[in-house]
Amino acid sequence: MKQMNLIVGQSGGPTAVINASLYGVVSEALKRSDSFDKVYGMVNGIEGFLNGHIMDMKPLEESGELELVKTTPGSYLGSCRYKLPEDLNDEVYPALFRRFEEYGIGYFFYIGGNDSMDTVRKLSRYAEGLQSDIRFIGVPKTIDNDPVLPDHTPGFASAAKYVASTVRDVLLADTVSDPH
Q: Is 54 helix (H, G, I), strand (E, B) or coil?
């Protein structure tokens, strides 16, 4: 069986966990060289990929930088807010699938919130119509917990903890400044 390449991207707003999710996908994929030939990252999400902006993730492991990615703030690969059209007959879909073929992509991982999961859904539907073997996997991450099916997502707990801590600190500060 021919090895396929894997590509991963980040989309939407960065949270404390978006890079930890990226680290998880990339580090596990690199451990499975029997399954994946190349592991690519999309620079600036699906929009960047559409424009041919990708990077080989293997050098990050070799340099030790990959280990740092999981605690790096922001979106390591860069993000986008590009929404794929509802109409699966739009010209963007064949263009994306030509890119997938060009890079030998067999596995597509997308880290993000509700709109990112919508991108995964649309690409999966389009692939089904083509009878494509590409696997599309969504890695939900969001601070507002808006994806439809999961109970909660990485990023939501850190945002909820931040809000709870801030409210507690404000209430404690008010108590200290007004002892009555």
A: strand
